[in-house]
């Protein structure tokens, strides 16, 4: 086991193939229209971050994984982004950011949710927007995270890869699971992940306490109403 779930160079190189740009990135890019300064919190490989670059716009990417950021810095267009290693504690309280985004369910990996949204609020200007998504706990996605349901094999640039998830523990909205990645040489890169499933009410409470005055939570990327069948919580909060 290692602390960084994205610490394997071979797997990081596959990340963008497994998580390509889609309607989630379209949503965040649309929010960035007309902004002068954007912060991507938990930017990972920087696929979305680099696409936010525009003439006259400052773009900042923050991530706690040195491996992910190392990959991000090597990609085309990376020189136009300011990359910062760290978690919410390195976010500067400048009060001049127009938009802060956090894609890929990043906020679910954050244990100190209230502190994180507080740090992002301090970075935003009055009227600035924070947007992110999280899995809806009512959909109980973890029930499908069994080795039988998730096992797969595929050919990758790292060779033949066998993959599956193994659920370890569920406690008070905190879900722990191991992601197994077995390479051709038999090496099993096992990465322990912890996700925090928070309800819309819990997320809203933290945002209001952080100083956000307007919180909207949809059930999808196109403004779908939130209900128990919604898989996603798409969050948008204005400071």
TrEMBL record:
Q: Which UniProt keywords apply?
A: Methyltransferase, Transferase
Q: Which GO terms describe its biological process?
A: methylation
Origin species: Kribbella speibonae
**Listed CDD domains:** AdoMet_MTases
Keyword Transferase assigned:
yes
Q: Which molecular function GO terms apply here?
A: methyltransferase activity
List, for all copies, the residue spans of the domain called Methyltransferase.
Answer: 38-128
Query: Which InterPro entries does the UniProt entry name for this protein?
Result: Methyltransf_25, SAM-dependent_MTases_sf
Which one Pfam family would you cite for this protein?
Methyltransf_25
Protein's recorded name: Class I SAM-dependent methyltransferase
